[in-house]
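Folds abound. Consider this:
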Amino acid sequence: GLSNMKTQIVPKGQWVAGGSVTYSTHTNSDYKFLVINNIDSKGFSFKISPLVGYSIATNSIVGARGVYSRSHLVMDSASLNMGEGDAALNLGVDYYYMLKHSYNVAAIWRQYIPLGYTKRIGLFAEFQLAMGGSQAKFAEGSPIRGTFSKGFDISIGANPGVVAFMTDNIALELNVGILGLGYSHTKQVHNQVTTGVTSSSMMNFKINILSIGMGVAFYL
């Protein structure tokens, strides 16, 4: 009785459009975090993720999701002090600058799971295949040394979640990433002279609390 698959949360032929937006900013002055002291920094992060889909069958949609994010950090100082005497470890940052933006597009399939006979709340499992890229600028030290990087990535992921309808056409959604397979390739140019390339693959089968997302969807 917990789930009744005959209950229509999303009937066949319905369009779904929605997305989420997040923004955060911070400023630190002589701040201490664990063993890191004298943190003077400021920055922000911004992320937008639109979604559009079409119900090909009852409680099942296919569609596309886009994600764009931008982050910025300027750190004037920070120091790491561990131990005492000759065994002490002291590291410091005089200046650090970072500006990064990334983007990707994903094809998605979402299956809804009704809770009982209600059409107002249910679970869903979303699977996606995503491709995208990123660009970033880094600068540090005095005299300043700079690095420019450009990357490409592809991933497969699963995101379960909960949907709750406030009206017949507007719903709140909460999802979290638990599974991911990914590959990324990044090329860096340091001081416009030296270059470096790195490639990595990733497999994740645990809940990622940093990927929790909340948004609003319109069912038309």
